[in-house]
UniProtKB/TrEMBL annotation:
EC number(s) on file: 2.7.13.3
InterPro entries named among the record's database cross-references: Globin-like_sf, Globin-sensor_dom, Globin/Proto, HATPase_C_sf, HATPase_dom, His_kinase_dom, HisK_dim/P_dom, HisK_dim/P_sf
Database matches in Pfam families: HATPase_c, HisKA, Protoglobin
GO terms, molecular function: kinase activity
Catalytic activity: ATP + protein L-histidine = ADP + protein N-phospho-L-histidine
Protein's name according to its UniProt entry: histidine kinase
PROSITE patterns: HIS_KIN
Domain called Histidine kinase: residue spans: 177-389
Class of enzymatic activity (EC top level): transferase
Organism of origin: Corallococcus soli
Keywords of this entry: ATP-binding, Kinase, Nucleotide-binding, Phosphoprotein, Transferase, Two-component regulatory system
Coiled-coil stretches noted in the UniProt entry, renumbered to this chain: none
Length: 392
């Protein structure tokens, strides 16, 4: 946060030295209640079916967060409310942004803290209305400031996203022209390779044959990269045909050919009715997801599990959950995992999941990363795909 913003926010809530003094006077009164307040705070979150999804780390995470919230209340009332304080608060705000916590939860959460601390001071200063009013005013200001900082970090993130979109647009143009330019030389290499493979040297000398084979493989890899890049920037028209996902999954398994130490299972796909879609692009979805899952296991023995079923209420659609027993997604990229060029691997361009999302969305479906404590414990993706209306 720049100095300007920091000062502007302070000015906006009119936070002064006497407010600091009032907050310090509130600290000894409120401190004994911090533990109870943090219990109520996280109980409320856990009771809320949507908000609780943020607490994916389960009980141990909640235990840790309760302690951090108590520290947070301590520093809220003791200050000093200087630049370092605001920088720390910004960092906390960015933690919430990073885990994609919806901004609107912040209002309710801050209100709970406001109410709890106000109740304590009213109770303790009964009979001293002026003092209670002084502390209440200061508390109101600092909590407004906290909320403003939280919202500021969301705004920062939004601006960063807009800058990324712009970068991607430039990237798209660049990739489009480089991709097309690369197709020609790759085509020439392929033709020459075909001719060389028919020459006597390729039959007589096994080393020549081996190297020609290698060149062929690498041209294939390069072509695949160019195709993925071009797919990313231009939407290939969707074909519409009846598609059975169980067949698509079988083709994906055959294409990826997971090694023996990876146990792959699928449940519920057979029972799904056919949907209308593009079989080739849907195959790409499963190939990319399966490749990612296998790579996440990093050569270790493990499991990849796919489950599917029909949505019980609401829109007529199929859901699919694909999870693996790998280490799970790096928290630092969790929120951006579907963005192009987002990868933690040394190899690969980070287009796989971006393409998956693009294809599913063009089918009217979607995908989200929704890890859970139970299950295999690694990455877990939930996919949705609409189904055609039931025949009358
Ligand atoms: C006024 C509101 C809130 C305050 C003051 C607050 C405070 C904090 C603090 C101090 C941290 C630790 C940051 C760090 O690691 O440095 C944190 C992290 C976290 N908060 Fe909040 N929080 C608030 C609202 C919420 C809400 C509403 C939720 C969930 C619905 C939530 C979920 C989390 C989670 C999951 C983390 C840990 C993220 C991670 O490390 O991966 N917070 N919060």
């Amino acid at each position: 946060m720049t100095e300007n913003v920091f000062e502007e926010l302070q000015h906006y809530v009119d936070f002064r030295d006497e407010d600091g003094a009032a907050l310090r006077a509130l600290h000894p009164i409120a401190q004994a209640h911090f533990e109870r307040i943090s219990d109520v705070f996280y109980r409320r979150i856990l009771e809320h079916p949507e908000a609780r999804k943020a607490l994916e780390g389960g009980e141990s995470q909640v235990g840790h967060l309760k302690v951090t919230l108590q520290d947070w209340m301590g520093s809220l009332l003791l200050g000093p409310w200087d630049r370092a304080y605001f920088e720390r608060r910004c960092r906390i705000g960015r933690v919430h942004v990073r885990i994609s916590l919806p901004q609107h939860y912040m209002f309710g959460a801050m209100n709970l803290l406001r109410q709890a601390l106000t109740d304590i001071l009213e109770e303790s200063l009964r009979g001293q209305p002026d003092e209670a009013a002084r502390l209440r005013r200061a508390l109101g200001k600092i909590l407004d400031l906290e909320l403003a900082i939280m919202l500021h970090t969301y705004r920062e993130d939004l601006l960063a996203q807009a800058a990324r979109v712009e970068r991607l647009a430039t990237f798209g143009q660049l990739v489009g022209s480089i991709g097309h330019e690369l197709r020609n030389p790759l085509g020439v290499i392929e033709t020459s390779l075909f001719i060389l493979k028919g020459r006597p040297a390729a039959q007589e000398d096994p080393r020549v044959a081996k190297h020609l084979e290698r060149i062929g493989e690498q041209v294939g890899v390069a072509n695949h990269i160019v195709t993925s890049l071009l797919d990313m920037i231009r939407a290939r028209p969707l074909t519409h045909a009846p598609v059975r996902l169980t067949e698509v999954w079988a083709s994906a398994l055959a294409a990826v050919a997971p090694p023996e130490h990876v146990r792959v299972s699928a449940r519920g796909l057979d029972a799904l009715p056919p949907l209308q879609g593009d079989p080739v692009q849907l195959l790409q979805v499963f190939v990319n997801l399966l490749e990612n899952a296998v790579q996440a296991l990093g050569g270790a023995a493990g499991e990849v599990r796919l489950e599917a079923g029909l949505q019980e209420s609401g829109a007529r659609e199929a859901w699919l959950v694909l999870e693996d027993s790998g280490p799970g997604l790096d928290p630092a990229i969790r929120a951006r995992v579907f963005e192009p060029l987002m990868t933690t691997r040394a190899r690969g361009l980070g287009l796989g999941l971006a393409l998956v999302r693009r294809i599913l969305e063009r089918h009217g479906g979607g995908i989200e990363h929704a890890p859970r404590e139970e299950g295999l414990g690694g990455a877990r993706f939930v996919l949705r795909l609409p189904l055609p209306p039931e025949a009358p």
